[in-house]
Protein backbone atom coordinates (compact mmCIF):
# COMPACT_ATOMS: atom_id res chain seq x y z
CA UNK A 1 0.00 0.00 0.00
CA UNK A 2 2.79 2.43 0.94
CA UNK A 3 4.63 1.72 -2.32
CA UNK A 4 1.47 2.40 -4.34
CA UNK A 5 0.82 5.70 -2.56
CA UNK A 6 4.45 6.76 -3.11
CA UNK A 7 4.14 5.89 -6.81
CA UNK A 8 0.94 7.97 -7.14
CA UNK A 9 2.64 10.95 -5.48
CA UNK A 10 5.62 10.70 -7.84
CA UNK A 11 3.37 10.51 -10.91
CA UNK A 12 1.43 13.59 -9.81
CA UNK A 13 4.66 15.44 -9.09
CA UNK A 14 5.99 14.81 -12.60
CA UNK A 15 2.67 15.83 -14.14
CA UNK A 16 2.98 19.15 -12.31
CA UNK A 17 6.49 19.64 -13.74
CA UNK A 18 5.29 19.15 -17.33
CA UNK A 19 2.15 21.23 -16.84
CA UNK A 20 3.97 24.23 -15.39
CA UNK A 21 6.61 24.00 -18.13
CA UNK A 22 3.84 24.11 -20.75
CA UNK A 23 1.78 26.79 -19.01
CA UNK A 24 4.58 29.30 -18.41
CA UNK A 25 6.83 28.63 -21.44
CA UNK A 26 4.97 26.96 -24.33
CA UNK A 27 1.30 27.93 -24.06
CA UNK A 28 1.62 31.13 -26.10
CA UNK A 29 3.88 29.65 -28.79
CA UNK A 30 2.46 28.41 -32.12
CA UNK A 31 4.37 25.09 -32.09
CA UNK A 32 1.10 23.25 -31.69
CA UNK A 33 2.23 19.86 -33.01
CA UNK A 34 5.34 19.99 -30.81
CA UNK A 35 3.17 20.96 -27.85
CA UNK A 36 0.98 17.93 -28.49
CA UNK A 37 4.02 15.63 -28.40
CA UNK A 38 5.33 17.39 -25.29
CA UNK A 39 2.08 16.95 -23.36
CA UNK A 40 1.70 13.28 -24.32
CA UNK A 41 5.34 12.55 -23.49
CA UNK A 42 4.74 14.24 -20.16
CA UNK A 43 2.02 11.72 -19.31
CA UNK A 44 4.09 8.73 -20.47
CA UNK A 45 7.19 9.93 -18.59
CA UNK A 46 5.20 10.55 -15.42
CA UNK A 47 3.95 6.95 -15.37
CA UNK A 48 7.18 5.21 -16.43
CA UNK A 49 9.95 7.16 -14.67
CA UNK A 50 8.84 6.35 -11.06
CA UNK A 51 9.12 2.65 -11.97
CA UNK A 52 12.81 3.03 -12.82
CA UNK A 53 15.49 3.16 -10.15
CA UNK A 54 19.24 3.60 -10.29
CA UNK A 55 21.75 2.25 -7.78
CA UNK A 56 25.00 3.82 -6.64
CA UNK A 57 27.57 2.17 -4.38
CA UNK A 58 29.58 4.12 -1.83
CA UNK A 59 32.63 2.55 -0.23
CA UNK A 60 33.06 3.00 3.51
CA UNK A 61 35.89 2.05 5.84
CA UNK A 62 35.28 -1.14 7.82
CA UNK A 63 34.30 -0.61 11.44
CA UNK A 64 36.64 -2.02 14.10
CA UNK A 65 35.33 -5.34 15.34
CA UNK A 66 34.14 -5.42 18.94
CA UNK A 67 35.81 -7.72 21.44
CA UNK A 68 32.55 -9.12 22.76
CA UNK A 69 28.89 -9.25 21.94
CA UNK A 70 25.73 -10.27 23.69
CA UNK A 71 24.36 -13.54 22.34
CA UNK A 72 20.66 -13.69 21.59
CA UNK A 73 19.15 -16.77 19.96
CA UNK A 74 16.95 -16.13 16.93
CA UNK A 75 13.72 -18.10 17.44
CA UNK A 76 13.12 -20.59 14.66
CA UNK A 77 9.62 -21.60 15.72
CA UNK A 78 6.50 -19.63 16.27
CA UNK A 79 6.56 -16.73 18.70
CA UNK A 80 4.32 -16.62 21.76
CA UNK A 81 2.99 -13.15 21.31
CA UNK A 82 0.16 -11.45 23.09
CA UNK A 83 -2.72 -11.02 20.69
CA UNK A 84 -3.87 -7.43 20.44
CA UNK A 85 -6.83 -5.98 18.61
CA UNK A 86 -5.83 -4.57 15.25
CA UNK A 87 -6.25 -0.80 14.99
CA UNK A 88 -8.55 0.68 12.39
CA UNK A 89 -6.71 0.92 9.08
CA UNK A 90 -7.29 4.51 7.96
CA UNK A 91 -5.00 4.09 4.94
CA UNK A 92 -7.13 1.27 3.58
CA UNK A 93 -10.34 3.19 4.30
CA UNK A 94 -9.14 6.32 2.47
CA UNK A 95 -7.85 4.24 -0.43
CA UNK A 96 -11.26 2.53 -0.72
CA UNK A 97 -12.98 5.94 -0.83
CA UNK A 98 -10.53 7.02 -3.51
CA UNK A 99 -11.38 3.94 -5.60
CA UNK A 100 -15.11 4.60 -5.21
CA UNK A 101 -14.72 8.06 -6.74
CA UNK A 102 -12.65 6.54 -9.57
CA UNK A 103 -15.44 4.06 -10.22
CA UNK A 104 -17.94 6.95 -10.26
CA UNK A 105 -15.98 8.76 -13.00
CA UNK A 106 -15.59 5.47 -14.88
CA UNK A 107 -19.36 5.10 -14.83
CA UNK A 108 -19.75 8.61 -16.28
CA UNK A 109 -17.30 7.71 -19.05
CA UNK A 110 -19.27 4.57 -19.92
CA UNK A 111 -22.52 6.57 -20.00
CA UNK A 112 -20.97 9.05 -22.46
CA UNK A 113 -19.79 6.19 -24.67
CA UNK A 114 -23.29 4.73 -24.59
CA UNK A 115 -24.78 8.13 -25.54
CA UNK A 116 -22.33 8.43 -28.44
CA UNK A 117 -23.26 5.03 -29.88
CA UNK A 118 -26.94 5.87 -29.46
CA UNK A 119 -26.47 8.99 -31.62
CA UNK A 120 -24.53 6.94 -34.20
CA UNK A 121 -27.28 4.32 -34.31
CA UNK A 122 -30.08 6.86 -34.87
CA UNK A 123 -28.26 8.99 -37.44
CA UNK A 124 -27.88 8.54 -41.19
CA UNK A 125 -24.39 7.22 -41.97
CA UNK A 126 -22.45 8.08 -45.14
CA UNK A 127 -19.02 6.48 -45.53
CA UNK A 128 -16.36 8.41 -47.42
CA UNK A 129 -12.84 6.93 -47.53
CA UNK A 130 -11.74 6.59 -43.89
CA UNK A 131 -14.46 8.87 -42.50
CA UNK A 132 -18.03 7.97 -41.57
CA UNK A 133 -20.30 11.03 -41.78
CA UNK A 134 -23.31 10.75 -39.45
CA UNK A 135 -26.20 13.16 -40.12
CA UNK A 136 -28.51 13.79 -37.18
CA UNK A 137 -31.62 15.91 -36.67
CA UNK A 138 -30.83 16.60 -33.02
CA UNK A 139 -29.67 20.04 -31.90
CA UNK A 140 -26.19 18.66 -31.58
CA UNK A 141 -22.85 20.43 -31.71
CA UNK A 142 -20.64 19.14 -34.59
CA UNK A 143 -18.08 16.70 -33.21
CA UNK A 144 -15.85 13.80 -34.20
CA UNK A 145 -14.79 10.64 -32.40
CA UNK A 146 -12.15 8.50 -34.07
CA UNK A 147 -13.42 8.07 -37.68
CA UNK A 148 -17.02 9.22 -36.96
CA UNK A 149 -18.08 12.79 -37.77
CA UNK A 150 -21.52 13.83 -36.42
CA UNK A 151 -23.21 16.99 -37.72
CA UNK A 152 -26.66 18.58 -38.12
CA UNK A 153 -26.59 20.16 -41.59
CA UNK A 154 -29.77 22.17 -40.95
CA UNK A 155 -27.95 24.53 -38.57
CA UNK A 156 -25.27 25.68 -41.04
CA UNK A 157 -24.92 27.06 -44.56
CA UNK A 158 -23.00 25.13 -47.25
CA UNK A 159 -19.95 27.39 -46.85
CA UNK A 160 -19.97 26.92 -43.07
CA UNK A 161 -20.40 23.16 -43.47
CA UNK A 162 -17.32 23.04 -45.67
CA UNK A 163 -15.20 24.76 -43.00
CA UNK A 164 -16.57 22.56 -40.23
CA UNK A 165 -15.94 19.38 -42.23
CA UNK A 166 -12.33 20.39 -42.90
CA UNK A 167 -11.85 21.13 -39.19
CA UNK A 168 -13.28 17.80 -38.00
CA UNK A 169 -11.43 15.80 -40.69
CA UNK A 170 -8.16 17.13 -39.27
CA UNK A 171 -9.18 15.78 -35.85
CA UNK A 172 -10.02 12.40 -37.39
CA UNK A 173 -6.95 12.00 -39.60
CA UNK A 174 -4.53 13.02 -36.84
CA UNK A 175 -6.17 10.67 -34.28
CA UNK A 176 -6.95 13.44 -31.80
CA UNK A 177 -9.53 11.20 -30.11
CA UNK A 178 -6.63 9.21 -28.61
CA UNK A 179 -5.39 12.35 -26.84
CA UNK A 180 -8.90 13.08 -25.56
CA UNK A 181 -9.36 9.57 -24.14
CA UNK A 182 -5.90 9.57 -22.52
CA UNK A 183 -6.64 12.89 -20.81
CA UNK A 184 -10.05 11.58 -19.72
CA UNK A 185 -8.51 8.47 -18.16
CA UNK A 186 -5.85 10.63 -16.51
CA UNK A 187 -8.56 12.64 -14.73
CA UNK A 188 -10.37 9.42 -13.85
CA UNK A 189 -7.31 8.04 -12.03
CA UNK A 190 -5.95 11.24 -10.47
CA UNK A 191 -9.21 13.13 -9.96
CA UNK A 192 -8.04 14.43 -6.59
CA UNK A 193 -5.28 16.55 -8.19
CA UNK A 194 -6.76 19.82 -9.59
CA UNK A 195 -3.70 20.30 -11.82
CA UNK A 196 -4.57 17.10 -13.68
CA UNK A 197 -7.86 18.68 -14.82
CA UNK A 198 -5.91 21.71 -16.02
CA UNK A 199 -3.53 19.35 -17.82
CA UNK A 200 -6.51 17.84 -19.67
CA UNK A 201 -7.81 21.30 -20.53
CA UNK A 202 -4.38 22.19 -21.96
CA UNK A 203 -4.46 19.07 -24.17
CA UNK A 204 -7.95 19.89 -25.50
CA UNK A 205 -7.01 23.54 -26.16
CA UNK A 206 -3.90 22.54 -28.08
CA UNK A 207 -5.86 20.06 -30.24
CA UNK A 208 -8.28 22.83 -31.23
CA UNK A 209 -5.36 25.16 -32.00
CA UNK A 210 -3.94 22.48 -34.34
CA UNK A 211 -7.27 22.03 -36.16
CA UNK A 212 -7.89 25.80 -36.38
CA UNK A 213 -4.42 26.54 -37.74
CA UNK A 214 -4.54 23.85 -40.43
CA UNK A 215 -8.17 24.63 -41.40
CA UNK A 216 -7.28 28.28 -41.92
CA UNK A 217 -4.19 27.33 -43.94
CA UNK A 218 -6.05 24.85 -46.19
CA UNK A 219 -9.14 26.96 -46.91
CA UNK A 220 -7.50 30.41 -46.82
CA UNK A 221 -10.75 31.73 -45.31
CA UNK A 222 -9.66 32.94 -41.92
CA UNK A 223 -12.36 35.60 -41.55
CA UNK A 224 -15.22 33.30 -42.58
CA UNK A 225 -13.87 30.58 -40.30
CA UNK A 226 -13.87 32.95 -37.33
CA UNK A 227 -17.52 33.88 -38.04
CA UNK A 228 -18.39 30.17 -38.13
CA UNK A 229 -16.77 29.72 -34.73
CA UNK A 230 -18.88 32.53 -33.29
CA UNK A 231 -22.06 31.07 -34.81
CA UNK A 232 -21.33 27.67 -33.27
CA UNK A 233 -21.50 29.23 -29.81
CA UNK A 234 -25.29 28.81 -29.80
CA UNK A 235 -24.98 25.01 -29.99
CA UNK A 236 -24.96 22.88 -26.87
CA UNK A 237 -21.74 21.37 -25.60
CA UNK A 238 -22.43 17.67 -25.18
CA UNK A 239 -20.05 14.68 -24.87
CA UNK A 240 -16.67 15.31 -23.21
CA UNK A 241 -15.03 12.32 -24.93
CA UNK A 242 -15.35 13.88 -28.42
CA UNK A 243 -13.52 16.54 -30.43
CA UNK A 244 -16.15 19.29 -30.67
CA UNK A 245 -16.16 22.13 -33.13
CA UNK A 246 -17.32 24.50 -30.42
CA UNK A 247 -15.33 24.83 -27.21
CA UNK A 248 -15.63 27.38 -24.41
CA UNK A 249 -12.31 28.93 -25.49
CA UNK A 250 -13.55 30.73 -28.64
CA UNK A 251 -11.69 33.92 -27.73
CA UNK A 252 -8.39 32.08 -27.28
CA UNK A 253 -8.84 30.25 -30.59
CA UNK A 254 -9.53 33.46 -32.50
CA UNK A 255 -6.52 35.14 -30.85
CA UNK A 256 -4.26 32.21 -31.80
CA UNK A 257 -5.56 32.32 -35.40
CA UNK A 258 -4.36 35.92 -35.63
CA UNK A 259 -1.04 35.30 -33.85
CA UNK A 260 2.12 35.38 -35.95
CA UNK A 261 4.05 32.10 -36.13
CA UNK A 262 6.63 31.77 -33.36
CA UNK A 263 10.31 32.02 -34.18
CA UNK A 264 12.27 28.77 -34.21
CA UNK A 265 14.62 30.35 -31.70
CA UNK A 266 11.94 29.69 -29.08
CA UNK A 267 12.35 25.91 -29.46
CA UNK A 268 14.95 25.98 -26.67
CA UNK A 269 12.08 26.17 -24.18
CA UNK A 270 11.35 22.47 -24.66
CA UNK A 271 14.72 21.65 -23.08
CA UNK A 272 13.68 23.26 -19.78
CA UNK A 273 11.90 20.07 -18.72
CA UNK A 274 15.12 18.02 -19.04
CA UNK A 275 16.98 19.44 -15.99
CA UNK A 276 13.77 19.21 -13.96
CA UNK A 277 13.45 15.52 -14.83
CA UNK A 278 17.12 14.92 -14.00
CA UNK A 279 16.60 16.65 -10.66
CA UNK A 280 13.66 14.36 -9.96
CA UNK A 281 15.82 11.30 -10.75
CA UNK A 282 18.66 12.43 -8.49
CA UNK A 283 16.29 13.23 -5.62
CA UNK A 284 13.93 10.25 -5.70
CA UNK A 285 15.11 7.48 -8.06
CA UNK A 286 18.69 6.85 -6.93
CA UNK A 287 19.33 4.37 -4.12
CA UNK A 288 22.65 4.39 -2.32
CA UNK A 289 24.17 1.12 -1.09
CA UNK A 290 27.04 1.22 1.39
CA UNK A 291 29.79 -1.32 0.65
CA UNK A 292 32.64 -2.01 3.07
CA UNK A 293 35.94 -1.60 1.24
CA UNK A 294 38.78 -4.01 1.75
CA UNK A 295 41.90 -3.00 3.66
CA UNK A 296 44.51 -2.19 1.00
CA UNK A 297 47.35 -1.54 3.49
CA UNK A 298 48.05 -5.18 4.27
CA UNK A 299 51.33 -6.94 3.89
CA UNK A 300 51.37 -10.05 1.66
CA UNK A 301 51.27 -12.20 4.79
CA UNK A 302 48.29 -10.30 6.22
CA UNK A 303 46.45 -10.55 2.94
CA UNK A 304 46.31 -14.29 3.48
CA UNK A 305 44.26 -13.65 6.63
CA UNK A 306 41.59 -11.56 4.84
CA UNK A 307 38.03 -11.62 6.06
CA UNK A 308 34.85 -10.75 4.17
CA UNK A 309 31.43 -10.46 5.81
CA UNK A 310 28.14 -9.91 3.98
CA UNK A 311 24.79 -9.42 5.71
CA UNK A 312 21.17 -9.39 4.57
CA UNK A 313 19.21 -7.45 7.20
CA UNK A 314 15.45 -8.00 7.51
CA UNK A 315 13.13 -6.22 9.93
CA UNK A 316 9.39 -5.57 10.22
CA UNK A 317 9.53 -2.61 7.77
CA UNK A 318 11.49 -4.37 5.00
CA UNK A 319 9.71 -4.14 1.65
CA UNK A 320 9.44 -6.93 -0.91
CA UNK A 321 11.43 -4.81 -3.36
CA UNK A 322 14.34 -4.35 -0.92
CA UNK A 323 14.45 -8.05 -0.06
CA UNK A 324 14.41 -9.04 -3.74
CA UNK A 325 17.20 -6.59 -4.61
CA UNK A 326 19.50 -7.78 -1.82
CA UNK A 327 18.90 -11.50 -2.47
CA UNK A 328 19.64 -10.91 -6.17
CA UNK A 329 22.90 -9.18 -5.19
CA UNK A 330 23.93 -12.20 -3.06
CA UNK A 331 23.14 -14.55 -5.94
CA UNK A 332 25.08 -12.59 -8.55
CA UNK A 333 28.06 -11.59 -6.37
CA UNK A 334 28.61 -14.62 -4.12
CA UNK A 335 26.60 -17.45 -5.74
CA UNK A 336 24.45 -17.73 -2.60
CA UNK A 337 20.75 -18.40 -3.17
CA UNK A 338 18.56 -16.86 -0.46
CA UNK A 339 14.83 -17.45 -0.87
CA UNK A 340 12.42 -15.42 1.28
CA UNK A 341 8.88 -16.80 1.08
CA UNK A 342 5.59 -16.99 3.00
CA UNK A 343 5.80 -13.30 3.89
CA UNK A 344 2.83 -12.35 6.07
CA UNK A 345 2.02 -8.74 6.98
CA UNK A 346 -0.42 -7.14 9.39
CA UNK A 347 -2.76 -4.23 8.75
CA UNK A 348 0.11 -1.77 9.29
CA UNK A 349 2.09 -3.50 6.49
CA UNK A 350 4.61 -4.84 9.04
CA UNK A 351 6.11 -8.30 8.61
CA UNK A 352 4.78 -10.78 11.20
CA UNK A 353 5.90 -14.00 9.55
CA UNK A 354 8.23 -15.33 6.86
CA UNK A 355 10.45 -18.23 5.84
CA UNK A 356 14.09 -17.88 4.76
CA UNK A 357 16.04 -20.65 2.96
CA UNK A 358 19.68 -20.37 1.87
CA UNK A 359 22.02 -22.54 -0.19
CA UNK A 360 25.38 -22.05 -1.89
CA UNK A 361 27.52 -23.98 -4.34
CA UNK A 362 29.66 -25.49 -1.56
CA UNK A 363 26.82 -27.45 0.00
CA UNK A 364 26.01 -25.02 2.81
CA UNK A 365 22.26 -24.75 3.37
CA UNK A 366 19.72 -23.98 6.05
CA UNK A 367 16.37 -22.40 6.73
CA UNK A 368 14.49 -20.42 9.36
CA UNK A 369 10.79 -19.72 9.73
CA UNK A 370 9.10 -17.09 11.91
CA UNK A 371 5.36 -16.87 12.47
CA UNK A 372 3.12 -15.00 14.88
CA UNK A 373 0.89 -11.96 15.24
CA UNK A 374 3.49 -9.43 16.44
CA UNK A 375 6.01 -7.69 14.13
CA UNK A 376 9.25 -9.65 13.78
CA UNK A 377 12.43 -8.59 15.54
CA UNK A 378 15.35 -7.47 13.32
CA UNK A 379 17.71 -10.23 12.22
CA UNK A 380 20.34 -10.82 9.55
CA UNK A 381 21.44 -13.60 7.26
CA UNK A 382 25.26 -13.49 7.33
CA UNK A 383 28.03 -14.98 5.21
CA UNK A 384 31.65 -14.86 6.43
CA UNK A 385 34.63 -15.72 4.22
CA UNK A 386 37.56 -16.02 6.65
CA UNK A 387 40.88 -17.43 5.44
CA UNK A 388 39.08 -19.44 2.77
CA UNK A 389 36.45 -20.75 5.20
CA UNK A 390 32.81 -19.81 4.72
CA UNK A 391 30.34 -19.54 7.59
CA UNK A 392 26.66 -18.89 6.93
CA UNK A 393 23.60 -18.61 9.11
CA UNK A 394 21.12 -16.37 10.88
CA UNK A 395 21.80 -13.78 13.56
CA UNK A 396 19.40 -11.85 15.72
CA UNK A 397 20.34 -8.31 16.68
CA UNK A 398 21.08 -7.27 20.25
CA UNK A 399 19.39 -4.29 21.84
CA UNK A 400 22.60 -2.25 21.87
CA UNK A 401 23.19 -0.76 18.48
CA UNK A 402 21.66 -3.55 16.43
CA UNK A 403 25.06 -5.24 16.16
CA UNK A 404 25.35 -8.92 15.14
CA UNK A 405 25.38 -11.20 18.16
CA UNK A 406 27.49 -14.13 16.95
CA UNK A 407 30.52 -15.04 14.85
CA UNK A 408 32.88 -12.28 15.99
CA UNK A 409 36.34 -12.10 14.41
CA UNK A 410 39.28 -9.97 15.54
CA UNK A 411 42.17 -9.41 13.14
CA UNK A 412 45.80 -8.80 14.10
CA UNK A 413 46.79 -5.24 14.93
CA UNK A 414 49.63 -3.24 13.41
CA UNK A 415 52.18 -4.79 15.84
CA UNK A 416 51.33 -8.23 14.43
CA UNK A 417 50.35 -9.59 17.84
CA UNK A 418 48.14 -12.68 17.77
CA UNK A 419 44.49 -12.29 18.76
CA UNK A 420 41.61 -14.71 19.19
CA UNK A 421 38.87 -15.34 16.67
CA UNK A 422 35.78 -16.33 18.67
CA UNK A 423 32.43 -17.69 17.43
CA UNK A 424 29.58 -18.32 19.86
CA UNK A 425 26.54 -20.33 18.86
CA UNK A 426 24.00 -22.88 19.97
CA UNK A 427 23.21 -26.15 18.30
CA UNK A 428 19.97 -24.88 16.73
CA UNK A 429 18.89 -28.32 15.54
CA UNK A 430 18.91 -29.77 19.07
CA UNK A 431 17.71 -26.82 21.14
CA UNK A 432 15.09 -28.17 23.56
CA UNK A 433 11.65 -26.62 23.45
CA UNK A 434 10.97 -24.52 26.56
CA UNK A 435 8.04 -25.69 28.71
CA UNK A 436 4.79 -23.84 28.23
CA UNK A 437 3.68 -21.93 31.34
CA UNK A 438 0.25 -22.96 32.70
CA UNK A 439 -2.69 -20.80 31.73
CA UNK A 440 -3.94 -18.82 34.74
CA UNK A 441 -7.63 -19.22 35.63
CA UNK A 442 -8.44 -15.86 34.00
CA UNK A 443 -7.31 -17.28 30.66
CA UNK A 444 -8.48 -20.86 31.09
CA UNK A 445 -11.63 -22.12 32.71
CA UNK A 446 -12.22 -18.84 34.53
CA UNK A 447 -12.82 -16.50 31.59
CA UNK A 448 -14.60 -13.89 33.68
CA UNK A 449 -15.74 -13.49 37.25
CA UNK A 450 -19.54 -13.77 37.70
CA UNK A 451 -21.37 -10.47 37.84
CA UNK A 452 -22.81 -9.80 41.33
CA UNK A 453 -26.62 -9.39 41.50
CA UNK A 454 -27.95 -5.87 41.73
CA UNK A 455 -29.97 -5.08 44.89
CA UNK A 456 -33.55 -3.83 44.33
CA UNK A 457 -34.20 -0.11 44.38
CA UNK A 458 -35.99 0.59 47.68
CA UNK A 459 -38.47 3.49 47.74
CA UNK A 460 -37.42 6.46 49.85
CA UNK A 461 -39.49 6.82 53.11
CA UNK A 462 -41.41 10.09 53.49
CA UNK A 463 -39.83 12.81 55.60
CA UNK A 464 -41.36 13.48 59.05
CA UNK A 465 -43.09 16.92 59.17
CA UNK A 466 -41.23 19.58 61.12
CA UNK A 467 -44.47 20.73 62.76
CA UNK A 468 -46.06 17.69 64.42
CA UNK A 469 -49.02 19.79 65.67
CA UNK A 470 -50.15 20.65 62.15
CA UNK A 471 -53.12 18.45 61.26
CA UNK A 472 -52.76 19.10 57.52
CA UNK A 473 -49.05 18.17 57.47
CA UNK A 474 -49.63 15.04 59.58
CA UNK A 475 -52.50 13.96 57.34
CA UNK A 476 -50.30 14.26 54.24
CA UNK A 477 -47.54 12.36 56.08
CA UNK A 478 -49.91 9.51 56.98
CA UNK A 479 -51.05 9.25 53.34
CA UNK A 480 -47.42 9.09 52.17
CA UNK A 481 -46.60 6.49 54.83
CA UNK A 482 -49.50 4.34 53.70
CA UNK A 483 -48.23 4.51 50.13
CA UNK A 484 -44.68 3.74 51.34
CA UNK A 485 -45.85 0.65 53.27
CA UNK A 486 -47.69 -0.60 50.19
CA UNK A 487 -44.52 -0.15 48.12
CA UNK A 488 -42.44 -2.05 50.69
CA UNK A 489 -44.94 -4.94 50.65
CA UNK A 490 -44.65 -5.08 46.86
CA UNK A 491 -40.83 -5.14 47.21
CA UNK A 492 -40.90 -8.28 49.38
CA UNK A 493 -40.71 -10.77 46.43
CA UNK A 494 -37.79 -8.82 44.97
CA UNK A 495 -35.95 -8.94 48.30
CA UNK A 496 -36.40 -12.69 48.50
CA UNK A 497 -35.18 -13.06 44.91
CA UNK A 498 -32.13 -10.90 45.68
CA UNK A 499 -31.20 -13.05 48.68
CA UNK A 500 -31.41 -16.20 46.51
CA UNK A 501 -29.19 -14.62 43.84
CA UNK A 502 -26.63 -13.63 46.49
CA UNK A 503 -26.50 -17.22 47.77
CA UNK A 504 -25.98 -18.45 44.20
CA UNK A 505 -23.28 -15.83 43.61
CA UNK A 506 -21.37 -16.87 46.75
CA UNK A 507 -21.46 -20.50 45.60
CA UNK A 508 -20.10 -19.51 42.17
CA UNK A 509 -17.27 -17.54 43.77
CA UNK A 510 -16.37 -20.55 45.90
CA UNK A 511 -16.17 -22.57 42.67
CA UNK A 512 -13.05 -20.67 41.67
CA UNK A 513 -11.07 -21.89 44.66
CA UNK A 514 -10.29 -25.33 43.10
CA UNK A 515 -9.09 -23.61 39.92
CA UNK A 516 -6.65 -21.46 41.88
CA UNK A 517 -5.34 -24.44 43.83
CA UNK A 518 -4.89 -26.41 40.59
CA UNK A 519 -3.09 -23.43 39.06
CA UNK A 520 -0.68 -23.30 42.02
CA UNK A 521 0.17 -26.99 41.53
CA UNK A 522 0.74 -26.40 37.80
CA UNK A 523 3.07 -23.50 38.63
CA UNK A 524 5.13 -25.76 40.92
CA UNK A 525 5.38 -28.31 38.11
CA UNK A 526 6.33 -25.56 35.65
CA UNK A 527 9.17 -24.41 37.92
CA UNK A 528 10.62 -27.92 37.97
CA UNK A 529 10.33 -28.16 34.16
CA UNK A 530 12.14 -24.82 33.81
CA UNK A 531 15.04 -26.13 35.92
CA UNK A 532 15.26 -29.23 33.70
CA UNK A 533 15.11 -27.02 30.60
CA UNK A 534 18.04 -24.93 31.83
CA UNK A 535 20.12 -28.07 32.34
CA UNK A 536 19.37 -29.20 28.76
CA UNK A 537 20.32 -25.76 27.45
CA UNK A 538 23.70 -26.03 29.20
CA UNK A 539 24.35 -29.35 27.47
CA UNK A 540 23.48 -28.03 24.01
CA UNK A 541 25.71 -24.95 23.95
CA UNK A 542 29.16 -24.98 22.51
CA UNK A 543 31.90 -22.41 22.23
CA UNK A 544 34.51 -22.48 19.57
CA UNK A 545 37.73 -20.48 19.88
CA UNK A 546 40.34 -20.58 17.21
CA UNK A 547 43.79 -19.02 17.41
CA UNK A 548 44.91 -17.02 14.39
CA UNK A 549 48.11 -18.27 12.84
CA UNK A 550 51.23 -16.63 14.17
CA UNK A 551 53.06 -14.48 11.65
CA UNK A 552 56.36 -16.35 12.22
CA UNK A 553 55.87 -20.08 12.83
CA UNK A 554 52.24 -20.44 11.40
CA UNK A 555 51.28 -22.58 14.44
CA UNK A 556 47.54 -22.76 15.29
CA UNK A 557 45.58 -24.37 18.10
CA UNK A 558 42.12 -24.24 19.70
CA UNK A 559 41.05 -23.39 23.28
CA UNK A 560 37.79 -22.74 25.13
CA UNK A 561 36.73 -19.34 26.38
CA UNK A 562 35.07 -20.45 29.63
CA UNK A 563 34.65 -17.02 31.19
CA UNK A 564 32.59 -15.67 28.29
CA UNK A 565 30.62 -18.89 28.09
CA UNK A 566 29.70 -18.80 31.79
CA UNK A 567 28.73 -15.12 31.60
CA UNK A 568 26.48 -15.83 28.61
CA UNK A 569 24.73 -18.75 30.31
CA UNK A 570 24.38 -16.78 33.55
CA UNK A 571 22.55 -14.00 31.69
CA UNK A 572 20.26 -16.58 30.07
CA UNK A 573 19.52 -18.17 33.46
CA UNK A 574 18.74 -14.78 35.01
CA UNK A 575 16.28 -14.09 32.17
CA UNK A 576 14.49 -17.38 32.84
CA UNK A 577 14.38 -16.63 36.59
CA UNK A 578 12.86 -13.23 35.83
CA UNK A 579 10.18 -14.93 33.71
CA UNK A 580 9.42 -17.33 36.56
CA UNK A 581 9.07 -14.43 39.01
CA UNK A 582 6.67 -12.72 36.61
CA UNK A 583 4.48 -15.84 36.55
CA UNK A 584 4.46 -15.94 40.37
CA UNK A 585 3.52 -12.28 40.53
CA UNK A 586 0.68 -12.93 38.07
CA UNK A 587 -0.57 -15.77 40.23
CA UNK A 588 -0.53 -13.58 43.36
CA UNK A 589 -2.35 -10.83 41.48
CA UNK A 590 -5.10 -13.28 40.52
CA UNK A 591 -5.49 -14.43 44.11
CA UNK A 592 -5.70 -10.85 45.31
CA UNK A 593 -8.28 -10.12 42.61
CA UNK A 594 -10.49 -12.99 43.80
CA UNK A 595 -10.14 -11.97 47.46
CA UNK A 596 -10.92 -8.34 46.61
CA UNK A 597 -14.04 -9.40 44.69
CA UNK A 598 -15.23 -11.49 47.62
CA UNK A 599 -14.65 -8.63 50.06
CA UNK A 600 -16.48 -6.24 47.76
CA UNK A 601 -19.52 -8.49 47.55
CA UNK A 602 -19.57 -9.02 51.33
CA UNK A 603 -19.40 -5.27 51.81
CA UNK A 604 -22.27 -4.86 49.35
CA UNK A 605 -24.35 -7.37 51.30
CA UNK A 606 -23.55 -5.66 54.60
CA UNK A 607 -24.42 -2.30 53.13
CA UNK A 608 -27.76 -3.61 51.80
CA UNK A 609 -28.66 -5.18 55.16
CA UNK A 610 -27.65 -2.02 57.04
CA UNK A 611 -29.84 0.04 54.72
CA UNK A 612 -32.81 -2.23 55.37
CA UNK A 613 -32.18 -2.10 59.12
CA UNK A 614 -31.91 1.70 59.07
CA UNK A 615 -35.19 2.09 57.22
CA UNK A 616 -36.91 -0.34 59.57
CA UNK A 617 -35.71 1.69 62.57
CA UNK A 618 -37.00 4.89 60.96
CA UNK A 619 -40.39 3.26 60.51
CA UNK A 620 -40.44 2.21 64.15
CA UNK A 621 -39.66 5.74 65.29
CA UNK A 622 -42.52 7.07 63.17
Automatic annotation (TrEMBL):
Its domain of life? Answer: Bacteria
Q: Does the keyword rRNA processing apply?
A: no
Full protein name: Peptidase M56 domain-containing protein
Q: Could you tell me where the Pro residues compositional bias lies? A: 432-441
What residue intervals traverse the membrane? Answer: 6-25, 37-60, 93-117, 267-287
Q: What are the alphabetically sorted keywords of the record?
A: Coiled coil, Membrane, Transmembrane, Transmembrane helix
The UniProt annotation puts the region (Disordered) at 432-456
For this protein, the record's Pfam families field holds: Peptidase_M56 (PF05569)
The organism encoding this protein is: Flavobacterium profundi
Q: Which residues form a coiled coil?
A: 488-536, 569-622
Domain Peptidase M56 as annotated: residue spans: 147-257
Q: Which InterPro entries does the record match to this protein?
A: Beta-lactam_resp_regulator, Peptidase_M56
Amino acid sequence: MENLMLYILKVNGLLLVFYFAYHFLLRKETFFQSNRIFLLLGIATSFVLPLLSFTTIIWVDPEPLATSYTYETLPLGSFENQIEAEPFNWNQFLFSCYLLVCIFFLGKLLIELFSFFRIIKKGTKIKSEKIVLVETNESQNPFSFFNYLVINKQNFSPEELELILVHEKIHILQKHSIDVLISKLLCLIFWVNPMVWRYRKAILENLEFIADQQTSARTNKTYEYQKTLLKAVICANQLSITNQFYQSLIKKRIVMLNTNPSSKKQLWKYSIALPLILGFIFCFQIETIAQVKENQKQTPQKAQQSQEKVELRIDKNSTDEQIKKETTYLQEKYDVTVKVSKIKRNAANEIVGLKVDYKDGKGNSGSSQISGDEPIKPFVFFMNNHNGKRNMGFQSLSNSGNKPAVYVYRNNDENEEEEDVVAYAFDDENIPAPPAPPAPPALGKMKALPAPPSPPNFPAPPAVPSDLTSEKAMKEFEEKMAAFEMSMKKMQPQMEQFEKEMEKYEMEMEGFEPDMKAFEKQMEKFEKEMEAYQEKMMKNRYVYVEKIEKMKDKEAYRVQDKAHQEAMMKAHKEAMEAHKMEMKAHKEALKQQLEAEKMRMKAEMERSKAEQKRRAEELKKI
